[in-house]
Design brief:
alpha/beta; 7-stranded mixed β-sheet; about 25% strand; globular; about 35% helix; 5-stranded parallel β-sheet
Length: about 280
């Protein structure tokens, strides 16, 4: 596209889905995390997202959240911003809980070049980051592992798709607040639906928590020694998916300490010390 071309590309969710594959997303996310972990030398500028809390019309809290996430990568010569609305209560109305769009700009002139659906990318990118962390933190083995997933939504499915790129699984277990949703998700993944979260977690090698839980659903007593946990659902400072005792008894890695200390309820509530993943892995 020539300089100063005023045309703006628009990509739907299906077009984004057709263009991306999980293996490529994992590779790009791994590179991006490596650069981000280098600090100023990595050429990545990614401030902690700004979030506006949207109250209900009657003045009660808890309607939803509106987030803005800009980022610039010098190595990739990309300037972009994701705008996302998060309304947890939408599930009971059978509406999407996450709605997002991504705007891409020309970093040389600041011109808007593309607007694309952000929901597909959000699902894939979040899971890809977990896959990168799992790749570096779980020793590679010839044995097939057991994957336990708490949650049965978009992130449960995308995490399975991402993690199966890295590991082979002998069993995939799924739990949700309703058996109906757990069975539907498990059927899609070729796994088994469990009646309780404990049934999913006991003996699992890798555990994913991808729920809207505001109080812990994962207990320390269930987790076997050496298990790896990808905790992704507690994205608010007052939300928690993981038992604080389990958090404090674990080695906790994060991509951004600044963001973790502001947004990650599991970390804030448990007061656990965290380690930057870039420092440990050298990626």
């Amino acid at each position: 596209m020539a300089d100063h071309d005023s045309r703006i590309v628009s990509l739907s969710a299906q077009q984004v889905r057709d263009l991306l594959c999980m293996k490529d997303v994992i590779r790009v996310v791994e590179s991006g995390l490596a650069n981000f972990s280098k600090g100023p030398d990595g050429g990545v500028v990614q401030p902690v997202r700004s979030v506006v809390k949207i109250d209900k019309p009657d003045g009660q809290t808890g309607q939803g959240f509106f987030g803005v996430m800009p980022a610039y990568s010098a190595d990739d010569n990309i300037l972009a911003c994701k705008i996302v609305s998060f309304y947890p209560g939408n599930a009971k109305y059978k509406k999407a809980t996450h709605m997002a769009n991504i705007m891409v700009y020309d970093p040389k002139y600041g011109e808007l070049k593309a607007i694309m659906d952000g929901e597909v990318i959000t699902a894939m990118r979040t899971a890809a980051a977990s896959a990168v962390a799992t790749k570096w933190l779980v020793p590679k083995t010839e044995e097939k592992l057991v994957l336990g997933i708490l949650g049965a939504g978009v992130q449960a499915r995308s995490h399975y798709e991402a993690l199966k790129v890295i590991y082979d699984f002998s069993e995939v277990r799924v739990w949700s607040l309703t058996m109906e949703s757990a069975m539907k998700c498990a059927d899609e993944l070729g796994g088994v639906a469990c009646l309780t979260a404990e049934d999913v977690v006991r003996g699992a090698d890798i555990v994913v928590t991808a729920t809207f839980a505001q109080t812990p659903i994962l207990k320390k007593i269930w987790v076997k020694p050496g298990a790896h946990i990808n905790a992704v659902g507690a994205c608010r400072a007052d939300w928690s998916e993981v038992d604080p005792e389990l958090m404090r008894d674990s080695v906790v890695y994060v991509d951004s300490k600044e963001a973790a200390m502001k947004e990650a309820g599991d970390i804030i509530i448990s007061k656990v010390k965290v380690i930057s993943v870039g420092i440990i892995t050298g990626i």
